[in-house]
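FW: tagging you since you asked about this chain on Friday. Here's the raw sequence from the shared folder, copied in full. Didn't touch anything.
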Amino acid sequence: MRIGIFGGTFDPIHNAHLFIAESARLIEGLDRVLFVPTNGHHYRTPPVASAADRSEMVRAAIADNAAFSFDDTDLRADATGYTADLLPALRGRYRDDAFTFIIGADSLVNAQWVRFDEVLESLERFAIAPRAGVKPEAVQRAIGVTPPALRERMRTLNLPELPESGTLVRGLLAQRQSVRYLVPEPVWKYVASRRLYGYDSR
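HL: got it, structure written out here
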């Protein structure tokens, strides 16, 4: 099987995440896409919602797509939060499958990658989704510093630049505005019922 691995904080998961995952599945010919929330230890801004809430929102968002699955490997007590450690952990369960890592261009350009060569060596493909505000030249610079043999595994997906982000969603919710139709309907209902991100319908 060919498996896509889509990691991130998903704080919260929104419709752009789902569009990227489904597009990558079709473009790269993937059999399954794993949504892998991270504990966020190494992110400059830690997740706002708890791991439990973020996990429930991911599960609700992907429930109606048989090609999407939830994976909690990067939320376990021994998880380091580094992709270079995540991939071997997943390999223990998917021994004969080919991995494609799916990532937004903002994460590629702005994150501090650790042992990036190891990450690429573990993958068949490293698929990059364009994001609004990230210039193509910045993506090309990030790709250009990798060794040529590994650079061939990196591919920018032919997708529109999407402005939607977790920051936008959280900001709207903090202002008590609706994010319905920016996030999947089950996620919107979960956020409203739990009053996450400062949202209070009252």
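FW: The longest strand covers residues 2-8.
HL: agreed, and The two ends are 48 Å apart (CA to CA).
FW: great, closing this out.
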